[in-house]
Amino acid sequence: MKNKTELVMKIEKQSALARAAIVTMTTLAKSGHPGGSMSCIDITLSLYNTMNVDPKNPWKAERDMFVVSNGHISPAIYSSLAAADFVKLDDVISEFRLAESIFEGHVEPDVPGVEWASGNLGQGLSAACGFALAARVNNINKQIYVIMGDGEQQKGQISEARRFAKKYDLNNITCFIDYNQLQICGDISHVMPQEIVANYKSDGWEVIEINGHDISEILEAIEKAKTLNSPVMVLAHTTMGKGVSFMENKEKFHGSTLHKEDCLKAIQELGVDFDFAKYENLRKEKIESGKRSVYPKENAKNLSLQKGTAITYDKATDNRSAWGNALTKLAENNLDSKTKIAVFDCDLMGSVKTDGFYKVMPNNFFQSGIMEHHTAVCAAAMSKMGIQTFFADFGVFGIDETYNQHRLSDINQTNLKIINTHVGLDVGEDGKTHQCIDYVGLMRNLYHFKTIVPADPNQTDSAVRYAAIHQGNIVMSMGRSKLDIITKENGETYFDENYTYEYGKADKLRSGNAGAMLVMGTVTNNALKVVEKLAAEGYQLELWNVSSPLKADENMLKSISKQPFIITYEDHNVNTGLGSIIADQLMSRGLFTRLYKFGVEDYACSGSAADVYKHCHLDQDSVYARTKEILANNN
Fold it and tell me: Same domain for 460 and 384?
């Protein structure tokens, strides 16, 4: 390595200053994680001194990428970024963990140079896999680095990511493990014994062991990793609190800070010229507004996919087949598109209907096996890099099991399209463990996700094409069964070739003034038949299909508020779905009428979908009888 001695001396000098910054910012904030930050600082500084990055253009496409999995070492990351001229050290120290500051307690992509906001431990390697795959799909040569804690290796998602990285030969991934052998409750061998090196080797990784405080060894490991035909794990033997004698090898300092007097002693021991009082005063100043949200939405550039011509169905079929057919056509229409499409599957290809895409674009199809946590993060990370990424799964796996992963994706401003089949009681025979009845309620908690619940195959086709050409996270949920085609009163197809899906717009299927019924998803056909049966008896109900329940349709709300009552009908938990959302939307606008909620009131039984609906009083006959009773009570 050219001028290696000079580089080593440069990093060693940066290291002493960074350690002083770490103890100072955590002391001033009276919170943070100084111990691990000091044990890994030599590694992070070495990486930022050797990676292909540019502080003047931090998001250039060909940059190397550094994923911080153990985000609580933010003091080390911010100090390293300051040393690399991405941010100002004065800002880092004086604003650490202050409200309105971009320098939050755990790393966030508001900070230039930070690629991924870390949530709970164990997700960083999965994100790195997504970035590495994106580089391959986009034909960009780059290195992907990850830093992780040693206690973090206890997380199962890391095992998933290791296997995935090896399967897909992601040989441009190098991960460093900060092996200080301490976690919050003490020695890692006592908290939870593990064979870190053996685990990585057994999954086919190359392993390099180094002294994590020897800059020369760190630099040599970085260079050697580039020559190996495998993903590489560097086990860096380090010391908690390295550099300050009274902090070293004490688990207390994983999450405890120094008092001012001890901080001054630490700075003196580090031997750097450091003005603690300066930062005390700076911290009292007001933070400038408008400093947040630096990270660009790379995926918003060049979204050039062609959505193609709609497929119009005239016979009953299932929404999941309509989704699969639309996806296949999207692949065929965009073989040469500048914007790439990728699909992730978790051993359910035939059931979630991604097999057609696989035949058209096999190199952009990623089979993850039964590893949902990893797949959710990996797919989300890829979606940040200008690739329209779909993750298809059953509802209980793609939503319930991976909710926290999606929460992190929301924070990371990803562009993931989550397609969930087999939701609701419609799953039938698989029973209550697989009847996902909270697919709207859960995603309602995520501020920037759009949620789509299509009513029939034709609306599904149009909604998939909408998702393909729009920016942002979208979850689309659908049942398992074949559905009749929704029709107009004259028998013509409602969602025909002239229909274009519009997020937030409810569809008025029937007019009436005796009351209103709002329905979403699989049970829309049942609702239509109930309303038509009542119409034959002289009761004209207004019927609305609500396919985007999280976004209010003002015209619909004004119309239904004039009705004597409203019924919401859904294959979903009655407490958290369409009914509760409509109640919120009406009340917040000062619109009032009587509301009745038909939905799933408890975990259900196993049986055919028809029998399970009947058991839960959500079948056509039960809904008709319940509605007839409401009509009688309102006359």
Answer: yes
Half-sphere exposure of 279 (CA within 13 A, CB side): 25
H/E element, 25? helix 4-29
Does some domain include residue 535? yes
> Greatest CA separation found in the chain?
91
Structural tokens at position 334: 């965009």
Give Cβ neighbours of residue 486 (< 8 Å, ≥ 6 apart): 455, 456, 458, 459, 493, 494, 495, 509, 524, 525, 528, 545
Q: Is the pLDDT of residue 293 over 70?
A: no
By the 8 A CB rule, do 529 and 441 touch?
no
The total of structural domains in the chain comes to 3
Could you read off the pLDDT of 172-220 as tens digits, one per residue? 999 999 999 889 888 899 999 999 999 999 999 999 999 999 999 999 9
294 falls within a domain: no
Query: Residue 234: what are its φ and ψ, rounded to 5°?
Result: -105, 115
* Residues spanned by the domain of 138: 4-282
Q: Is 544 helix (H, G, I), strand (E, B) or coil?
A: strand
Starting at the edge strand found earlier in the chain, the sheet holding 507-510 runs: 507-510, 542-545, 516-519, 565-573, 594-600
Q: Is 340 within 8 Å of 298 (Cβ atoms)?
A: no
* Alpha helix stretches (DSSP H) within 283-338: 319-333
CA 300 to chain centre: 17
- 334-392: pLDDT as tens digits: 999 999 999 999 999 999 999 999 999 999 999 999 999 999 999 999 999 999 999 99
C-alpha span between 552 and 584 (Å, rounded): 10
The answer to whether 337 touches 305, Cβ cutoff 8 Å, is: yes
Q: What is the pLDDT of residue 300?
A: 47
Contact (CB, 8 A) for 414 and 473: yes
Per residue in 224-243, pLDDT (tens digit) is 999 999 999 999 999 999 99
Q: Are the beta carbons of 91 and 294 closer than 8 angstroms?
A: no
Q: Which residues neighbour 220 within 8 Å (Cβ) at sequence distance 6 or greater?
A: 1, 210
Which CATH number do you get for residue 535? 3.40.50.920
Residue 356 lies in a domain: yes
Alpha-carbon gap, residue 623 to 519, rounded angstroms: 12
Whether residues 49 and 154 share a domain: the answer is yes
Are 345 and 246 members of one domain? no
Do 193 and 117 lie in one domain? The reply is yes
CA–CA gap between residue 582 and residue 558 (Å, rounded): 12
The number of angstroms, rounded, from the C-alpha of 186 to the middle of its chain's C-alpha atoms is 31
583/460 same-domain check:
no
**Distance from chain centroid for Cα 277:** 41
Task: Kindly state whether residues 437 and 306 are assigned to the same domain.
Answer: yes
CA 267 to chain centre: 40
41 and 116 in a single domain? The answer is: yes
Is 493 domain-assigned?
A: no
Q: What are the beta bridge partners of residue 493?
A: 487
Q: For the sheet containing 416-421, what is the strand order?
A: 365-367, 340-345, 387-394, 416-421, 474-477, 450-452
